[in-house]
TrEMBL record:
Family matches, as InterPro entries: Kinase-like_dom_sf, Prot_kinase_dom, Ser_Thr_protein_kinase
SUPFAM superfamilies: Protein kinase-like (PK-like)
Pfam families: Pkinase
GO BP annotation list: signal transduction
GO cellular component, one term: cytoplasm
Domain Protein kinase: 139-411
Gene Ontology MF: a single term: ATP binding
Protein name per Swiss-Prot or TrEMBL: 21596_t:CDS:1
Top-rank taxon, per record: Eukaryota
Organism field: Cetraspora pellucida
Length: 452
């Protein structure tokens, strides 16, 4: 498949990450000098001209967003609407006005959904980060990619594609053209409850910013069942299967992946959100890149979940959640610790220790302190931070920002050749992985009625 210029973020973003980590922010007086340096580095990079152009545009858009939200960089009066704006290449007020004028041209036929999307559009900051209602007839044929848990996932083509940029001459938003997307069907959502609407609201609010999670373009509705569907950015594979195919990783590669994961989780927690179902099946690799994104933010349980019922993936669920204590940010951290263990070994935890018909005894073992087998020969501080994540005492688990700071520090030193560790480039090879058959069901959460 040919990658269109507008889809090259995943191809070129590694350069942005690597460049940012090599240069201390304090060396730059302001954002403009920082951006000037990035563009200079891009010009020298061994990538195509179209990729260079795309990266520069992406950086400019990020700067525009930052200028608008922080009210920095100098304001100007828009020549069209005569309202002051901090953006240089578009006007957020004109973009919002265009969207408001388009309200009569679409409807989901559900007041709460229309109201939710319109309120989000009135807060739009960037023309390429607009959530919208998308009529189902705008999609091509659907191909089922996966099913299980509380959702089915389809691939399709969105005819016309998403909003992409503001045309100041014609005073209108322009679209990308036909675009590959993923549709995630949410079963039994035809009559959503208050909790479901709250999850949609949080999900879309988070997607309106440049956040390192799988992007959601909006909502649509399956015409037969009337169930709602999320329209998502397509990815390649999940971390679990990636590790089985690429288990010979060195420490630099592991830390790069954990840098991406913990950065994404930090942004989720900074927004006062909780993921609630974090496991390698929900960590996806961007197309044609080595960048990792957290997906399935929210929507981790059925719409009609009954009282006293928990919806979890037991090997990755915190003991307090398995006791019915509810999901918290600390529970997300616990799940991250299990993911760190799996990233180190390449295999899911607790192999051979549980089956569906014996899940309750296994859950009781987790409650009583069972954790993954110890790993020998790994860096001490890496082992220490991993095990602190799955502490039975939630107060001893690190915050997401502390996890990210740890992996950012390691990666920064690696890129600047300041971290010299004997094991840095060592590869942990586990020949027995060839004999492990991992079922997709391991990443499928289920509902359990349990008592603590």
């Amino acid at each position: 498949m040919v990658i269109k210029p507008k889809e090259r973020y995943d191809v070129t973003n590694p350069l942005l990450n690597r460049t940012a980590l090599r240069i201390p922010h304090k060396e730059f007086k302001n954002q403009d000098s920082y951006i000037k340096f990035f563009k200079s580095a891009i010009d020298k990079a061994n990538i195509s001209q179209s990729q260079k152009d795309f990266l520069k545009t992406w950086i400019d858009n990020w700067a525009e967003e930052n200028n608008i939200t922080s009210k920095t960089g100098g304001s100007r009066v828009c020549e069209t609407c005569l309202i002051s704006t901090f953006a240089k290449k578009f006007c957020e007020h004109c973009v919002r006005g265009y969207l408001i004028n388009n309200y009569p041209n679409w409807s989901s036929n559900v007041y709460e959904i229309d109201d939710l999307i319109r309120k989000r559009q009135k807060k739009t900051i960037r023309p390429d980060y607009i959530v919208e209602w998308i009529s189902f007839e705008n999609f091509g044929d659907l191909t089922l990619k996966a099913t299980g848990g509380c959702a089915s996932v389809y691939s399709t083509v969105w005819h016309g594609g998403r909003y992409d940029k503001w045309n100041a001459v014609e005073k209108k938003l322009e679209r990308t053209g036909d675009k590959d997307v993923i549709l995630k069907l949410l079963p039994n959502s035809s009559k959503p409850n208050k909790r479901w609407f709250q999850e949609v609201k949080q999900h879309l609010d988070f997607m309106m910013r440049t956040n390192p999670v799988v992007k959601c373009y909006g909502l649509t509705r399956e015409p037969t069942t009337q169930d709602f569907m999320l329209v998502l950015e397509p990815m390649t594979k999940n971390l679990g299967y990636f590790l089985l195919e690429n288990y010979s990783l060195n420490w630099k590669q592991r830390i790069e992946i954990l840098y991406d994961i913990t950065y994404s989780l930090m942004k989720i927690h900074d927004s006062e959100l909780i993921h609630r179902d974090l496991h390698p099946g929900n960590i996806l690799q961007g197309r044609n890149s080595n960048i990792w994104y957290i997906s399935d933010l929210g929507f981790c349980g059925p719409v009609d979940q009954e009282p006293g019922e928990i919806y979890v993936n037991p090997p990755y669920a915190a003991p307090e959640v398995l006791c019915g204590g509810g999901h918290t940010q600390e529970a997300d951290i616990y799940s991250t610790g299990i993911i760190i263990w799996q990233l180190t070994t390449g295999v899911p935890p607790y192999q051979g220790m549980y089956r569906d018909d014996q899940i309750l005894p296994f859950i009781n073992k987790i409650r009583n302190g069972l954790r993954p087998d110890p790993i020998y020969g790994i860096p001490y501080d890496y082992k220490e931070i991993m095990e602190s994540c799955w502490s039975g005492d939630v107060s001893k688990r690190p915050k997401a920002e502390h996890l990210f700071a740890y992996f950012e520090d390691k990666l920064t030193k690696i890129y600047r050749n300041e971290l010299i560790l004997p094991e840095l480039n060592n590869i942990i090879t586990l020949p027995e992985l060839n004999n492990i058959n991992v079922s997709p069901e391991i990443y499928t959460p289920r509902s359990y009625k349990i008592k603590c």
